TrEMBL record:
SUPFAM superfamilies reported for this sequence: FYVE/PHD zinc finger
Positions of the FYVE-type domain: 39-94
PANTHER family with a match to the protein in the record: ARRESTIN DOMAIN-CONTAINING PROTEIN D (PTHR39490), ZINC FINGER FYVE DOMAIN-CONTAINING PROTEIN 21 (PTHR39490:SF8)
Species name: Erithacus rubecula
Entry protein name: ZFY21 protein
Zinc recorded as keyword: yes
Length: 221
């Protein structure tokens, strides 16, 4: 799996990007660059309707590809889903989305790649196995390591159900204590199920496990 993680630096009209050498190794969270609206098709800003001329120049949003004036497309924001090395120009609407995604990349994905420990039960078995669960470096696989070893491709996951406890009718706080994961087996329509449970004997890891489950919940969205 690690052999296909090599990356290369490429230049596009939008800026420098650090992308996987092989398309098959792309992150499932990635986005393709959008086609730019041709200059001849946008004589006016697509946000405020200001007419473009020698003074009012047009700019393309790197996320949606539409044409805007400088006022409506002035922000330069990181866009990790398109693998840009530096922040790129985006319209106000796209910038808000990208800012939220940057937090996801900076926090949740790092938590998932660092991993956490759970008791994992496969299917309807009554036996569980202590395993370290983490997201692979290329973000394509959920890797489980214990006496057994599993690699589940993220795009094959169909359902993520977070298990919680501590809810009260008065609105008390809940905490994530486990997860039920359903995924398809590549090459067939068979759906497998795994149950993840945070171990009660590992109190020092409860916070880490809860953070990992919360991050997995965001991934599923």
């Amino acid at each position: 799996m690690s052999g296909g993680d090599a990356k290369k630096l490429v230049r596009s009209p939008s800026g420098l990007r650090m992308v996987p050498e092989h398309r098959a190794a792309r992150s499932p969270f990635g986005l393709d660059e959008p086609p730019w609206v041709p200059d001849k098709e946008c004589p006016r800003c697509m946000q405020c309707d200001t007419k473009f001329d020698f003074i009012t120049r047009k700019h393309h949003c790197r996320r949606c590809g539409k044409c805007f004036c400088d006022k409506c497309c002035s922000k330069k924001v990181p866009l990790p889903r398109m693998c840009f090395v530096d922040p790129v120009r985006q319209c106000a609407e796209c910038a808000l989305v990208s800012q939220k995604e940057t937090e996801f990349y900076d926090k949740q994905l790092k938590v998932l790649m660092n991993g956490a420990t759970f008791f994992v039960t496969l299917g309807t078995s009554d036996k569980s196995e202590l395993m370290v669960c983490r997201l692979s470096n290329n973000q394509r696989y959920l890797v489980l390591d214990g006496d057994s070893h599993y690699e589940i491709e993220i795009i094959q996951i169909s359902t993520v159900q977070i298990l919680t406890e501590g809810f009260t009718p008065g609105g008390g706080n809940t905490r994530a204590v486990g997860m039920i994961l359903q995924y398809k087996v590549p090459g067939s329509e068979e759906v497998m199920q795994m149950k993840f449970t945070a171990g009660e004997d590992f109190s020092c890891n409860k916070k880490l496990s809860a953070a990992w489950l919360a991050a997995m919940h965001k991934v599923s969205k």
